[in-house]
Specification:
InterPro entries: FN3_dom (IPR003961), FN3_sf (IPR036116), Ig-like_dom (IPR007110), Ig-like_dom_sf (IPR036179), Ig-like_fold (IPR013783), Ig_I-set (IPR013098), Ig_sub (IPR003599), Ig_sub2 (IPR003598). It holds the Pfam family I-set. It is found in: Cell membrane. The chain has about 1300 residues and is mainly beta. Strands 2, 5, 6, 9, 10 and 11 form a 6-stranded mixed beta sheet that branches. A hairpin with a 7-residue loop joins strand 67 (about 750-755) and strand 68.
Length: about 1300
């Protein structure tokens, strides 16, 4: 033998040795060195909405924490150089702000790299593309004129969007075109007519394309079709409009949905059918749509390849088309590579098993670099889908990438190889205590880590080794399981983790607790009103667990007050009618609970009678006479009745042979009798007793009579309640209620069971059995009728002839599914379903009915299926062929199947049918708020309905004012668009309450309304009454809050909270005394009352409804008056009044002298006017003499102002033209300093006016005042010193 040979493990041996590495999938604790692991990344194909930021996810873990970098289109992407790109701290996730940017600039292929000193992990290649919804190319559709009966195709040709649009055809009224067997829409969106009819004439065939990501809809120009019948097409054989020819090819990828369509023309309209050559259609994954013109097969696999034959048939012939389906496959995982944790000098294997069609090409990378370009490593061997790492060394940790690709896609996975020499560590916390209830499973954990992988062993109480086997199971991850924990399993358990670098142990404790049990349950109570009720609830529990007792009434909390909870009881004092109900005691511990319930009945208290009534005394002196085989006479002496007449006597017997100690009611007789003739049964040892009954109750029983024995005889009766049912196929169970020993009439009781198939000429089969109450006949046909009898026998003969009972043998599941399922949609929430009932033999049991299974797939406005919708089931009992489906959701797509039902269960489902519900009215808007109240305006904001139930057509807004007496004003109605969620209402009254009603609407009508109430802002210029000379006061506004919202209309009046009146103010005017007040009440009648001070006369009243001020006229000068404001309501006797205030009327009212009427003032004004006229005449004379003013000098300096050049663009004069329009338009703004920017020219006409106040008339003429010299005002820039200009005046309103 060669002593120098080294043992080299074969590939199979290495695989077997390292199986534990591959299956355990250990997680490396994050405090240990480890290469990066990608934990989150974006999908491979990411289509973004250009209205939102682009977020590309890339998260990874590792020790040390990895750093991140990106490539775009294969080159390094420097994130820091682009201010629009942000990388989240501590991760590689990119957030790209595309607001204000061209989103196309960020399209491309991105790949993330996570790196630390132990390796590099890379993400998938993430293709970033912008969603697109291009416009329809402009085209002009020629009107089409076709003969009746010919076929027709209306092409849609939608623009290519990303993702592709959803196509549908509608008319000008946004109504979907009705599709049927004759008119159908192809998968490419084209509209096909197998033959046209006269009613197909219309000018508004419109193809719509809805782009999912942007939720935009584009429409094609309407197509006009006119059908004429001057040369109508006759009947013809079918022909295929799509696909053309006799054969075509279709390729589909594994896992996708195969869609095949055949659209045929012909007259009459052809029927389409499908079959697969050489095989069956996969019924569980197959569905038809578009009136069987489209065949869909979901989750395609390789077996779905082959020839699919579609056949079009009408009464003139048949045509076929074969579609050759080829199934290809993008790469898919058979076994993805998994992380390896190896100790130095260990060997490991990475496997990357994939499949696909064509066969994928596998490429290996290490730390993101192809193995062909990576540094050579002699310990690494690559064999196609396997990498073998032999005798790895410290420092050789790395991340390997496996890329499998073919022409249809790729797969890429990271798997690190972490070379660690790490002694064992136990990750489960030490001294953990596990508590379980006896007879339940117990799991004791021992999570560990080490390299090499530790071996786990368990010990109980340190000494006893725990081995795999009953009752213990040691799982691969080290967890110890005890299937059924018992108290003897309690104790200390030690798990020991061992590898060649060390050993680590951990102790845990198991405590098996006794279950909690209620040993004395509360009992039913009948308690008189006003008394106390006590429910007991005694519990046994493990002494180490802390119990908590909880009492419930009718499964709710106990009311407050008269309920006293003690340790083991509940006491209810002073019981009332409301205390009736079910009381439950619940005993909880941290591990389990137990509960019990009892009822309480409350009755009226019994009044104390004047006479004491008691139960009667027991009868005495029982005697048996006239004894025969089947009868005897019993006599007795009644006891004392205690003031209540005996109503009856109850006679009981005891059967000392069969039921000793049990007294059974035999008969009763009137309370006036003292004898009874008793009918007896054979083979009974009788003993009798008698009880007396009055209205108080039963007496004590009498002493038993002497014993009387009857002789045995044959049974008088047969077993009762005979049933003949089949519990499973091939079985017939015959059961009955056995006779009691009393009914047996003698010893040796048996039963003779007979059966035979009904309506079949055969003899009875029989079996005699004893001491049982059922008999099972096996080997019977499925669900056939049987005749059955059961007769009683004993040692003295047979019972009477038994009655025949009809039953059926065991049922089996139905074989057939209902056929010809049709669905008629009645309205948006109701549909009728019709089907062809199955044949009764196929039911194979008693027909219970039909079950309709239906589920809402999605709303018609949704793209993706609603996976959260639960399937709904309706059962229609009996042999039905139709049913109604209520409660459907409008504007939705449903899927429906029907099964037949017997007692065994449901049969196979019918082929799946889909149907769509039309639109309905929408739900209410989700909210309605009033914001930004102004003096004469309010802004409303609202949210769209939660359930549109169709295409939202818009909103209807109604609003009306509400005055202070809660009377409603006229209603105004507005129609709003569907995309509006806010509106500002103008021309409203200030300080006014308005009520708003808003509802959404679809084409089916308006939905429920939502209401809101709000006030406009109070007019502050009217907040206090003021008195001007010769004028009355103005009215202050109502003291209201600006916005209120209430779910109830503002018609219900409530009394004020607090005082109805606030402060009262008084003032005097020439016309009288002005009284004003604050009022917070709702009373209809408000008065101002006044009286002369110290007078005993009645108060004078003046009605002032709806106002907050009033003027008292006609008061006597020099007199003082007491004044108050009073509010009265005819429906409320309460009178609300202000405090009395004192108003003194002046004796001689002061009058202001009007200076404009004085003579001296008129004369002075005339003199000044004359002087100004003289000065103007002098100035005019001097100007005509050629006198120079500064203005003249300016004009001379400009030579000839009449020949100034004009601007080419607008024809205005170059120097004096106003290049900016200083007249502010609506919504415009002027500079913040309130001035208009002057022209750049040095010579402005403004310079010649004082203080810069020169102004122009509307025609542009200068109206400023010439001054003798040009000078700057020392207060220039001080607005208070300037005369107001037109521009400044406009600024005050901006």
């Amino acid at each position: 033998m060669d002593r120098n040979r080294k043992w080299v493990p074969s590939f199979g041996a290495v695989l077997l040795i390292l199986l534990s590495h591959m299956t355990s999938a250990l997680e490396v604790p994050l405090d240990l060195p480890q290469p990066p692991t990608i934990t989150l990344q974006s999908p491979k194909d990411y289509i973004f909405d250009p209205r939102e930021n682009i977020v590309i996810h890339c998260e990874a873990k590792g020790k040390p924490h990895p750093s991140f970098s990106w490539t775009r289109n294969g080159t390094h992407f420097d994130v820091e150089k682009d201010s629009k790109v942000l990388m989240k701290p501590g991760s590689g996730t990119l957030v790209i702000d595309i607001s204000g940017e061209k989103a196309e600039a960020y399209e491309g292929t991105y790949q993330c790299t996570a790196h630390n000193e132990h390796g590099t992990a890379v993400s998938n290649s993430i293709v970033i593309r912008q969603s697109r919804s291009p416009l329809w190319s402009k085209e002009r559709n020629e009107a089409m004129v076709v003969q009746m009966g010919v076929s027709l195709v209306l092409q849609c040709r939608p623009p290519a969007g990303l993702p592709p649009p959803v196509i549908f055809w509608m008319d000008n009224n946004f109504q979907r075109l009705l599709l049927d067997k004759r008119v159908s829409q192809a998968l490419n969106g084209d509209l096909y007519f197998s033959n046209v009819l006269r009613e197909d004439t219309r000018s508004d065939y419109i193809c719509y394309a809805r782009f999912p990501h942007t939720q935009t809809i584009q429409q094609k120009q309407p197509i006009s079709v006119t059908v004429v019948d001057n040369r109508p097409e006759g009947e013809r054989r079918p022909g295929f409009m799509m696909p053309l020819g006799t054969t075509s090819n279709k390729m589909v990828l594994r896992g996708e949905t195969l869609e095949l369509e055949c659209i045929a023309d012909g007259l009459p309209t052809p029927e389409i059918s499908w079959q697969k050559d050489g095989g069956e259609l996969p019924s569980s994954r197959m569905s038809f749509s578009n009136f069987k013109k489209t065949l869909k097969v979901s989750d395609v696999n390789e077996a779905d390849g082959g020839n699919y034959r579609c056949t079009a048939t009408n009464n003139l012939g048949t045509v076929q088309h074969i579609i050759k389906v080829t199934v290809k496959a993008a790469p898919f995982w058979v076994s993805a590579p998994r992380n390896l944790i190896l100790a130095p000098n260990e060997t490991g294997i990475l496997t990357c098993r994939v499949n696909g069609e064509p066969k994928p090409k596998i490429t290996w990378f290490v730390n993101g670099v192809s193995l062909e370009n990576a540094p050579e490593d002699h310990s690494r061997k690559v064999d196609d889908d396997t990498v073998i790492l032999s005798n790895v060394q410290s420092g050789s940790s790395a991340v390997y990438q496996c890329n499998a690709s073919n022409e249809f896609g790729y797969l890429m996975a990271n798997a690190f190889v972490n070379v660690l020499a790490e002694p064992p560590r136990v990750l489960t916390p030490p001294n953990r205590v596990y508590q379980v209830i006896a007879n339940n499973p117990a799991l004791l954990h021992c999570a560990s880590f080490g390299s090499p992988i530790p071996t786990i062993t368990w010990f109980k109480d340190i000494q006893t080794s725990v081995k795999n086997g009953d009752p213990y199971v040691i799982h691969e991850n080290g967890t110890l399981e005890i299937h059924v924990a018992q108290p003897l399993n309690s104790g200390k358990y030690t798990c020991i983790a061992t590898n060649n670098l060390g050993i680590k142990e951990n102790h845990v404790y198991l405590e098996v607790k006794e279950p909690t049990r209620i040993i004395k349950q509360p009992e039913y109570k009948v308690v008189q009103k006003g008394m106390s009720a006590v429910f007991e609830c005694k519990v046994k529990h493990d002494p180490s667990l802390i119990p908590t007792m909880t009492w419930l009434k009718d499964n709710g909390e106990l009311p407050d007050g008269r309920f006293e909870v003690n340790v083991d009881s509940l006491t209810i004092t002073d019981v009332t009618d409301g205390d009736e109900g079910t009381y439950t005691c619940i005993m909880n511990t941290t591990l389990d609970q137990d509960s019990a319930s009892a009822m309480l009945t409350v009755v009226e208290a019994t009044p104390t009678p004047a006479i004491v009534y008691e139960k009667p005394d027991a009868p005495t002196d029982l005697e048996l006479t006239d004894q025969t085989e089947r009868s005897v006479q019993l006599t007795w002496t009644p006891g004392d009745e205690h003031n209540s007449a005996t109503q009856k006597f109850l006679i009981q017997y005891e059967d000392l042979l069969h039921q000793p100690g049990v007294w059974i009611n035999l008969t009763d007789v009137a309370g006036t009798s003292t004898t009874a003739q008793l009918n007896l049964s054979p083979y009974v040892y009788y003993s009798f007793r008698v009880l007396a009954v009055n209205h108080v109750g039963y007496s004590q029983p009498s002493q038993p009579s002497s014993q009387y024995r009857t002789n045995p005889a044959a049974p008088d009766e047969n077993p009762s309640d005979i049933q003949c049912v089949g519990t499973k196929p091939g079985h017939l169970v015959i059961s009955w209620t056995s006779l009691t020993g009393f009914q047996a009439n003698g010893p040796g009781l048996e039963y003779k069971v007979q059966w035979r198939q009904k309506d079949v000429d055969e003899d009875w089969s029989s079996k005699t059995v004893a001491n049982v109450s059922q008999f099972v006949v096996s080997g019977t046909p499925i669900y056939v009728p049987y005749e059955v009898t059961v007769q009683a026998l004993n040692d003295y003969g047979s019972g009477p002839k038994p009655d025949v009972v009809i039953g059926h043998s065991g049922e089996d599941l139905p074989l057939s599914a209902p056929d010809s399922v049709q669905i008629m949609v009645t309205n948006s929430t109701l549909a009728e379903v019709h089907w062809e009932p199955v044949s009764l033999p196929s039911v194979r049991g008693k027909l219970q009915g039909y079950k309709v299974h239906y589920r809402r797939e999605r709303g018609l406005h949704d793209i993706e299926e609603d996976t959260e919708q639960q399937e709904q089931v309706l059962t229609f009992s009996g042999n039905r062929s139709e049913g109604r489906l209520p409660g459907l959701q409008p504007y939705s797509r449903y899927n429906l199947t029907i099964t037949v039902l017997n007692n065994k269960g449901e049969g196979p489902p019918s082929p799946s049918k889909t149907f769509e519900t039309p639109e309905g009215v929408p739900g209410p808007p989700s909210f309605l708020n009033a914001v930004n109240p102004g003096l004469d305006s309010l802004t409303l904001e609202w949210g769209p309905p939660t359930n549109n139930n169709g295409r939202l057509a818009g909103y209807t807004l109604k609003y009306q004012p509400v005055n202070t007496t809660n009377e409603l004003g006229p209603v105004k109605i507005m129609a709003l668009l569907a995309n509006e969620t806010t509106i500002t209402l103008g021309n409203l009254n200030s300080s006014m309450l308005y009520k708003f009603y808003l509802s959404a609407k679809t084409i089916k009508g308006s939905g429920p309304i939502i209401t809101e109430e709000a006030f406009t802002v109070m007019d502050t210029t009217r907040s206090q009454p003021t008195v001007e000379p010769g004028k009355g006061p103005t009215e202050p506004p109502h003291p209201t809050s600006p916005i209120t919202q209430s779910p109830h209309p503002p018609f219900h009046k409530v009394p004020p909270v607090g005082p109805a009146f606030g402060k009262v103010n008084t003032s005097m005017s020439e016309d009288g005394a002005v009284i004003s007040w604050d009022y917070f009440g709702h009373h209809k009648n408000v008065y101002v009352e006044y009286i002369v001070e110290n007078s005993k006369a009645d108060w004078i009243k003046e009605l002032v409804n709806g106002s907050h001020w009033h003027m008292i006229k006609g008061l006597k000068p020099g007199t003082s008056y007491k004044v108050r404001v009073v509010a009265r309501d005819p429906a409320d006797p309460t009178v609300h009044s202000t405090d009395e205030v004192l108003v003194a009327v002046p004796a001689v009212p002061s009058r202001q002298v009007d200076i404009a009427t004085q003579g001296w003032f008129i004369g002075l004004m005339c003199a000044i006017a004359l002087l100004i006229l003289v000065l103007l005449i002098v100035c005019f004379i001097k100007r005509n003499k050629g006198g120079k003013y500064p203005v003249k000098e300016k004009e001379d300096a400009h030579q000839d102002p009449e020949i100034q050049p004009m601007k080419e663009d607008d024809g205005t004069f170059g120097e004096y033209s106003d290049t900016e329009d200083h007249k502010p338009l609506k919504g415009s703004r002027t500079p913040s300093n309130g001035t208009v920017r002057r022209d750049e020219s040095d010579d402005s006409l403004v310079d010649y006016g004082e203080g810069g106040d020169g102004q122009f008339n509307e025609d542009g003429s200068f109206i400023g005042q010439y001054s003798g010299k040009k000078e700057k005002d020392t207060h220039e820039g001080n607005e208070s010193s300037e005369a107001p200009s037109p521009v400044n005046a406009m600024n005050s309103f901006v």
